[in-house]
Amino acid sequence: MSKPRVIVGLSGGVDSSVSALLLKEQGYEVIGLFMKNWEDDPECRSREDMVDAVAVADVLGIDMEVVNFSAEYRDRVFAYFLQEYQNGRTPNPDVLCNSEIKFKAFLDHALSLGADKIATGHYARLRHTPHGVELLRGLDPGKDQSYFLYRLDQKQLARALFPVGHLLKSDVRALAHQAQLPTATKKDSTGICFIGERPFREFLQRYLPRTPGPMQTPEGQFKGEHQGLAFYTLGQRQGLGIGGAGEAWFVAAKDMAANRLIVVQGHDHPLLQRTHLVAEDLSWISGHAPMEGDGYSAKNRYRQQDSPCRLSLSADASRLHLSFPSPQWAITPGQSAVLYRAEVCLGGGIIHG
After folding, report:
1. Of the residues 44, 97, 309, 345, which is catalytic?
2. Is position 309 annotated as part of the catalytic site?
3. Is 97 a catalytic residue?
4. Residue 136 to residues 167, 329, 345: CA-CA distances in angstroms?
5. Hey, which CATH number is domain 209-267, 2.30.30.280, 2.60.40.1760, 1.10.10.10, 3.30.70.1140?
6. What is the pLDDT of residues 236-279, one digit of tens each?
7. pLDDT at residue 346, as a whole number
8. Does the pTM of the predicted model rise above 0.70?
9. Residue 70 region by backbone torsions, left for phi larger than 0, else alpha for psi between -120 and 50, else beta
10. Which residue from 148, 142, 139 is spatially nearest to 120, judged by alpha carbons?
11. Alpha helix locations (H) across the chain?
C-alpha cells in the first residue's frame, strides 16, 4: 500500500520547513511546493524565500516544485485589497490569501498532482468529529493563526494538515536546529509580502491617487491636511504630522462624503471605544451559523486578546451583531471579526460598522 501523498506549501520559513520534516518522519510521501504569488516588485522577498525553500527540500530529500499563482493572487486578492482601501476600509489580505490561494488555487493544483492532503506551517489545529472538521486555535497563544483561516470550509479543511499547530514556536525552532534545516534561525516574516520594507503609504500611492483634504477634530478644528483617506486606518497614530503638547493624536473616523479625516487626542478617547459591531460577508466553518446568545469570544483584529461577546444575527442570517461588555478599541471596517467558542474557531465576517 502506497504512503499518503502530502504536498507541503514550503514558504521558505521555519514553520513550513518543520511541517515538511514532521510529515516525512510520520511516513507520508512529501512533496514541497513553493507558491510564487507576486511578481511586480523586486523588494518582495520571494526570490530569497524560494532559494531557502529549495535548500530545505534538498536537506530533507524531498521533491520540490515552484508554481506561479501571481495572476490568481492579483485577481482574487490584490484587486480586492486596493478596492477596499479606495472605499475607505482596511482589509486583511492574509485572510483572503488563505481562502483563495493557499486553500483553493494551491489545493486544486495539489489534487491534480495526486495529493491526498496539503499542509502548511500555520499555527492551528484540526479536530475531526462525527459532525465535521473543527478548526482549533494553535497551542502557542502568541502564534495562533486560526484568525487567518476562519473563511475555510469543510471541504478545504478535510484536505488540510497543520503539523506545527500543537507545538510552541520555541519547539519548532529546536526541531529545525536538530535537523540542521537552513531556515532554523531565519526571522519570521512580518507584514504583507508585496509591500516589502517600504512605508505602507508609499506603496499604496503607486496604485491609488492622492486626494488631499482636511484633518479635523470632531468639533471641526483644522489640524492639518491628509494625503487621501485611503492611506489611513482607524486607530492610526504614526504619520499624522500633528505636533503640539498633550497626548498623541489618533485617526477616529473617515468622512468619505466630505473627504475629511477625523482625528482625536488620546488613546482612550470615547470615539475610539465601541461596545458593538456589525459584520457582513459571513463565513462559517461548520457550514451554518452558530446559535445566538452568550458564551462566545471574538477578535476584531489579529493582534488582539479575545473579548467575551454576545452574538445576534439578522433575520436572514446575512449579518452578525456582536456586543461586548467592555469597550473595544478602534473597531475598523474591512477587518475581520472572528468568533470563537473556547478553543474552537467558528467563523466570522467582514466588519461593516
Report:
1. 97
2. no
3. yes
4. 13, 25, 6
5. 2.30.30.280
6. 999 899 988 889 999 999 999 999 999 999 999 999 999 999 99
7. 98
8. yes
9. alpha
10. 148
11. 14-25, 46-60, 70-73, 79-86, 93-97, 106-112, 154-158, 169-178, 200-204
